[in-house]
Design brief:
By secondary structure, the protein is an alpha+beta fold. It has helices at 3-29, 47-50, 83-97, 112-123, 131-134, 220-234, and strands spanning 44-46, 55-56, 80-82, 101-107, 160-167, 238-240, 247-250. A hairpin with a 6-residue loop joins strand 6 and strand 7. It is globular, with a radius of gyration of 18 Å.
């Protein structure tokens, strides 16, 4: 057995175990599906059904996000995408596994009700509990003007994903405890919230110009890590949002003008997807 084969086998086993634990937790805590909820079109899939080795850390199912609570519509910590986007991520994952790395997704399809939740939060100027981590240098009154919050999101079309790269074997991410001291998302990696990813210069969802993919202040290994993610995905049809190093959209999008609102849940998908 070659060292590469052993690495891949170890990786798949470890990630499968992690996904099993995540699925068990999600099943126990997920909100029930309502009979009148909209359902996903037939070409939407759970990413894990296309590639079970991609690590999933769905932040909006947790309180560790810029709002500070689980976001509306996230009933399970599940990545849902259109099938072309999911299959392109699978091809990217195959390349990264050979380099001793794995993709990790933070967010995939996002229902419109979640975007509405973001808008309500942005309009509540008194709610600043997560400011010290996610937007320490941004006045909340400017979130719409600066483009950090909008009434529509490409995520709701099903082909946009927020993601990073983790070295293998992937370390568990330290659990976030609500109320714990917050550190700016642009602090050095050893100081900001512990994440098992490569150092990208900022944390995920950092409302700061340092999160711009090609910001010239990001140099050395941090820049190389961003460019590894960018070059890997762009060769497979993804387009980066220049203001967010983690944000990529697969093109051509199957639904370029449709913003869906079905919940993030396996019950939203056709059987077997």
């Amino acid at each position: 057995m070659t060292s590469l084969t052993r690495l891949l086998r170890t990786t798949v086993t470890a990630v499968a175990a992690l996904l099993t634990l995540t699925t068990a937790s999600a099943t126990a805590s997920a909100a029930p599906q309502h009979h009148d909820d909209p359902r996903a079109p037939g070409d939407f899939v759970a990413l894990s059904s296309v590639d079970p080795t991609i690590v999933q850390e769905i932040r909006y199912f947790t309180p560790h996000n810029f709002v500070g609570e689980r976001i509306d519509g996230y009933r399970q910590p599940l990545c849902i995408l259109t099938r072309p986007a999911a299959e392109a991520l699978h091809r990217a994952q195959q390349q990264l596994l050979r380099q001793g790395h794995s993709l990790k997704v933070y967010d995939c399809y996002r229902p419109q009700r979640a975007v509405d939740h973001f808008v309500r939060w942005a309009e509540d100027l008194d709610d600043q509990k997560m400011k010290d981590e996610f937007y320490p240098r941004v006045d909340k009154t400017w979130l719409f003007e600066d483009g950090y919050i909008a009434e529509k999101s490409g995520h709701s079309r099903g082909s946009t994903v927020d993601l990073t790269i983790v070295p293998l074997p992937a370390r568990p991410t330290r659990p976030y405890v609500p109320g714990q001291p917050l550190v700016p998302c642009y602090a050095p990696q050893e100081e900001r919230f512990e994440d098992n990813s490569l150092d990208m210069g900022t944390g995920f969802d950092c409302f700061d110009t340092l999160a711009h993919t090609l910001d010239p202040r990001i140099q050395g290994q941090q820049r190389a890590n961003r460019l590894l993610l960018k070059s890997t995905l762009e060769k497979l049809g993804f387009v980066n949002l220049a203001e967010e190093w983690w944000h990529y959209t697969y093109q051509p999008e199957p639904y370029p003008d449709t913003y869906f609102d079905f919940p993030v849940s396996r019950a939203s998908l056709p059987p077997g997807r």
